[in-house]
């Protein structure tokens, strides 16, 4: 299982009034450890006011670049993003877990046409994917639909314009602005008419190989439904949530009673007793077992484990496929035991 490593902050670049790009230097001995595929994220661990916080941030830089860059939007007062904006300095050292994640693009020798729909900070992994698509094959095309309130609030705006100038005939971007009417933009939000305009009007002659969606859940659902109505198969639609709807008490019945839980992590076994109405990850962390986790909201994939014995139900799942669930994989931050005994293995994923 991956562990945290100490990385030095090499650069901090303001992106908008509420977001910054942070670049980490990768020492020679960790270059292979921190090699990544476009679209992946890193998890940062930081103690703030006596409490350990873990936050997942998508990588915006290309795998070909030296160092790793992430985009951090200020969303929490007193949390890590607040710390990153107000206190973090070049030269500071943070604990960082190696890259992971399944929202990825792998270069192919065959030409690819890719389209992406992003909103707000959902642009972060799309930046890495776009750069990789354009760099990896001179015949690849990339179309981006990117929604924000205004240009002022648009993360990586300057980088995107530079990318457009560098790949004039192969990179096409549509800025969608909901609060200001500005040049070279479409006023409004990403909706069905936007999808139709881009796919059926502006690029009707392009056959797209894959569709990448990243941002708020409502946008992802809207675009996904529209693509399916157009006959796009699910295996071509890839998405990653950057916010998630709070879902409470969604299990048909709240499980009652106790479960004897066995946890396998880093080749060690731990046993404990837990309430069935408690989430597996919560029970594990309460015992100070060093299991992998990050968002604790079912949005990332850090806490995936494999069920070796017993059963568990997930409150929500936006990541695992039906076949992966059938193989026994669960998001432990969303799973309640439903059997008297349960064994989960974090190493076998």
Automatic annotation (TrEMBL):
CDD domains: fer2, PA_degradation_oxidoreductase_like
Keywords per UniProt: 2Fe-2S, FAD, Flavoprotein, Iron, Iron-sulfur, Metal-binding, Oxidoreductase
Cofactor requirement: FAD
The UniProt record lists the keyword Oxidoreductase: yes
UniProt domain FAD-binding FR-type: residue ranges: 2-106
UniProt cross-references to InterPro entries, sorted A to Z: 2Fe-2S_ferredoxin-like_sf (IPR036010), 2Fe-2S_ferredoxin-type (IPR001041), 2Fe2S_fd_BS (IPR006058), Beta-grasp_dom_sf (IPR012675), Cbr1-like_FAD-bd_dom (IPR008333), FAD-bd_FR_type (IPR017927), Flavoprot_Pyr_Nucl_cyt_Rdtase (IPR001709), FNR_nucleotide-bd (IPR039261)
Record-given protein name: Ring-1,2-phenylacetyl-CoA epoxidase subunit PaaE
């Amino acid at each position: 299982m991956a562990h945290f490593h100490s990385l030095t902050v090499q650069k901090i670049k303001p992106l908008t009034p509420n977001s910054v790009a942070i670049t980490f230097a990768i020492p020679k001995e960790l270059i292979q450890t921190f090699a990544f595929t476009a679209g992946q994220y890193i998890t940062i661990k930081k103690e703030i006011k006596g409490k350990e916080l873990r936050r997942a941030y998508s990588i915006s830089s290309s795998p070909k670049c030296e160092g790793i860059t992430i985009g951090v939007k200020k969303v929490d007062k007193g949390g890590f993003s607040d710390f990153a904006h107000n206190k973090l300095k070049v030269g500071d050292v943070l604990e960082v877990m190696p890259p992971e994640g399944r929202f990825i693009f792998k270069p192919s020798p065959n030409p690819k046409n890719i389209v992406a729909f992003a909103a707000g900070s959902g642009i972060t992994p799309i930046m890495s994917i776009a750069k990789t698509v354009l760099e990896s094959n001179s015949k690849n095309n990339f179309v981006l639909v990117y929604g924000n309130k205004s240009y002022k609030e648009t993360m990586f705006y300057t980088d995107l314009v530079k990318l457009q100038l560098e790949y004039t005939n192969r990179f096409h971007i549509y800025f969608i602005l909901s609060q200001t009417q500005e040049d070279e933009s479409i006023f409004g939000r990403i909706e069905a008419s936007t999808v139709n305009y881009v796919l059926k009007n502006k690029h009707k002659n392009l056959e797209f190989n894959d569709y990448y969606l990243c941002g708020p859940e409502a946008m992802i659902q809207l675009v996904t439904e529209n693509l399916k109505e157009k006959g796009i198969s699910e295996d071509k639609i890839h998405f990653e949530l950057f916010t998630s709807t709070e879902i409470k008490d969604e299990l048909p019945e709240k499980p009652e009673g106790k479960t004897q839980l066995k946890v396998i992590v880093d080749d060690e076994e731990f046993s404990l007793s837990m309430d069935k109405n408690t989430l597996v990850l919560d029970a594990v962390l309460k015992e100070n077992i060093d299991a992998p986790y990050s968002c604790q909201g079912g949005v990332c994939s850090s806490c995936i484990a494999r069920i070796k014995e017993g059963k568990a139900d997930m409150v929500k799942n936006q990541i695992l496929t039906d076949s992966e669930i059938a193989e026994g994989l669960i998001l432990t931050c969303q799973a309640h035991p439903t059997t008297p005994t349960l064994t989960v293995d974090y190493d076998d994923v």
